[in-house]
Design brief:
By secondary structure, the chain is an alpha/beta fold. Helix content is 38%, strand content 22%. It folds into two domains: 277 residues, Aldehyde Dehydrogenase, Chain A, domain 1 (3-Layer(aba) Sandwich), CATH 3.40.605.10; 193 residues, 3-Layer(aba) Sandwich (Aldehyde Dehydrogenase, Chain A, domain 2). A seven-stranded mixed β-sheet has the order 15-16-17-14-13-19-20, sandwiched between helices. Strands 10-9-8-11-12-22 form a six-stranded mixed β-sheet, with helices on both faces. It has a three-stranded mixed β-sheet with strand order 1-5-4, with helices on one face. Helix 2 packs across helix 6, helix 3 packs across helix 4 and helix 4 packs parallel to helix 5. It binds nicotinamide-adenine-dinucleotide and (2E,4E)-2-amino-6-oxohexa-2,4-dienoic acid.
């Protein structure tokens, strides 16, 4: 039986049990498609967070610490299989919380949760301990090897845009390495983290290894968790502003952090690019998930000779996006996550206008009829005529928007794209592969794509430079973050 269903209370999960909700501490889970509450969520108070962290501490020291890497990997594979069996339940939960189109929920969100769990089962199984002989001064010889131990209790704090994908991206390697976790999903999207608790229970994860605490950030479950002295490391995905607060909290006790933060990602389009393929790629990179992917493109630099063609072609594709019922497979674009977030995005519409921008498509709130009038809908929007130093070209908006700017030379394109405090991702569109490599390498970002976007090999390092984050996760990089190495040196 499912642990969560529409109109139920989304519960916390501590020490292997769903916690009876406190009726005085409920908040609404709002469907951004209609603006209506679809469930209540039990906000964890400081004492419940404390119980969760204690249960995780007991778990890392208990039976879980005796599980072999092979056994942990097998559990992750069972969890992946169980999510596949309950696939549509996860898809529906993700749609209910976010309003995202069903094709996105199926092909990206839930599919990636399955891939995250099985990939880290593979990665941890393949990882060997390094061991090598050292020649030391004076002719002495030693054998050095490294034993990797779990960090202990890891706090996992994640946002609302790709709830299950981003959660499992961190939980899978943390568990693969033998840690226990306390996860804090976004207050906007609590459901799939709780469903995942049910899956872990079904596949035999020991009590206390996976705990869920629900609530808000500051002065709620989020800050109670990251400030808890029983937490050994913090992995966080979210905005740069929140990351700064989380880092302050983690500084007490000198806890390691891994941060995947905001972006202001550039696409660079050269005149030699395949125009149709580029326009399809740009459409995905600007508008996927209603622009609410940290990797989405919000700045498009286009070589002058093809600028008008790219503007016209992209505007045409934007105008053909289908907004509406997320459960209809023909829908391409859902609402923003909330009215509050829409207010923020609309404020940037006003700033763009004040900066002299012209919206070549969109620029407002769509009229989708009475059914959706209280939702968080917004028009996919493209601007031309803005300078690179205008606020909408510098600050992360996190909506289905981009500003297009012409350039003349490769050097100018690189300089414009790198003129940002963020450094998460970039994409380069060209038929000249040498140019593609050169420009992609020149981008000051964590991930640089050529003629594609958001194509992921989960063994590659993922993360950002500058305001976009600290550290890398993915493949071996995840194993490094979620473990503490002990070097043993034996004189021979
Ligand atoms: P957010 O920073 O507001 O919240 C993220 C999480 O942190 C939520 O669970 C929130 O409740 C919690 N939180 C807030 N304040 C906290 C505090 N003081 N202590 C502890 N926890 C706290 O982000 P959001 O609005 O949920 O998500 C959108 C942002 O996330 C965007 O900036 C986006 O770029 C970023 N993001 C980055 C990546 C990446 O991989 N780089 C991925 C997805 C989203
Ligand atoms: O693909 C991933 O592993 C990942 N962390 C994506 C982040 C997307 C941001 O919204």
């Amino acid at each position: 039986m499912s642990s969560v269903a529409p109109d139920e209370i989304v519960r916390n999960f501590v020490a292997g049990r769903f916690v009876d909700p406190d009726p005085t501490r409920l908040f609404d889970d709002v469907d951004p498609v209609t603006g209506r509450a679809v469930a209540s969520v039990h906000e964890a108070d400081a004492s419940l967070v404390d119980r969760a962290v204690r249960s995780a501490r007991n778990a890392v020291a208990g039976e879980w610490s005796k599980w072999s890497t092979r056994e942990r990997a097998a559990l992750l594979r069972r969890a992946a299989l169980r999510i596949e069996e309950r696939f549509e339940e996860f898809v529906e939960a993700e749609i209910r919380d976010t309003g995202k189109p069903i094709t996105h929920a199926r092909e990206v969100d839930v599919a990636r949760a399955v891939a995250n769990l099985s990939t880290f089962a593979d990665v941890v199984s393949a990882a060997g301990e390094s061991s090598f002989r050292s020649e030391l001064p004076g002719g002495r010889q030693a054998l050095n090897y490294v034993v990797r131990k779990p960090l202990g209790v890891v706090a996992v704090v994640v946002p609302w845009n790709l709830p299950l994908l981003l959660l499992t991206w961190k939980v899978a390697p943390a568990l693969a390495c033998g840690n226990a976790v306390v996860v804090k999903p976004s207050e906007e999207t609590p459901t799939t983290a709780t469903l995942l608790a049910d899956v872990f229970r079904e596949v035999g994860l020991p009590d206390g290894v996976y705990n869920v605490v629900h609530g808000y950030g500051l002065d709620s479950a989020g800050s109670h968790l990251v400030g808890h002295s029983g937490v050994d490391g913090v992995t966080f995905t979210g905005s740069t502003a929140t990351g700064t607060q989380v880092m302050r909290a983690a500084a007490t006790g000198v806890r390691p952090v891994s941060f995947e933060l905001g972006g202001k990602n550039a696409a660079v389009v050269f005149a030699d690019a395949d125009l149709d393929a580029t326009l399809d790629g740009l459409t995905r990179s600007v508008f996927s998930n209603t622009g609410q992917v940290c990797l989405c493109t919000e700045r498009v630099y286009v070589q002058r000779s093809v600028f008008d063609d790219v503007v016209e072609g992209l505007a045409d594709r934007a105008a053909r996006l289908v907004l509406g019922d997320p459960r209809d497979t023909g829908t391409t674009t859902g609402p923003l996550i909330s009215r509050a977030h829409r207010d923020k995005v609309l404020a940037y519409f006003a700033l763009a206008e004040a900066a002299g921008a012209r919206a070549v498509v969109g620029g407002g709130v769509p009229d989708l009829g009475a059914k959706y009038e209280d939702g968080a809908w917004i028009e996919p929007t493209l601007w031309v005529g803005m300078d690179n130093d205008a606020r909408p070209m510098r600050e992360e908006i996190f909506g289905p928007v981009a500003g297009l700017v012409p350039f003349d030379t490769d050097a100018e394109a690189i300089s414009l794209a790198n003129d940002s405090e963020y450094g998460l991702a970039a994409s380069v569109w060209t038929s000249d592969l040498v140019r593609g490599h050169q420009v992609a390498q020149a981008m000051n970002v964590g991930m640089s794509w050529v003629n594609t976007w958001f194509l992921r090999d989960l063994r590659s390092p993922f993360g950002g430079a500058g305001l976009s984050g600290i550290g890398r996760e993915g493949g071996e990089s995840s194993l490094h973050f979620y473990t503490e190495p002990t070097n043993v040196c034996v004189q021979l």
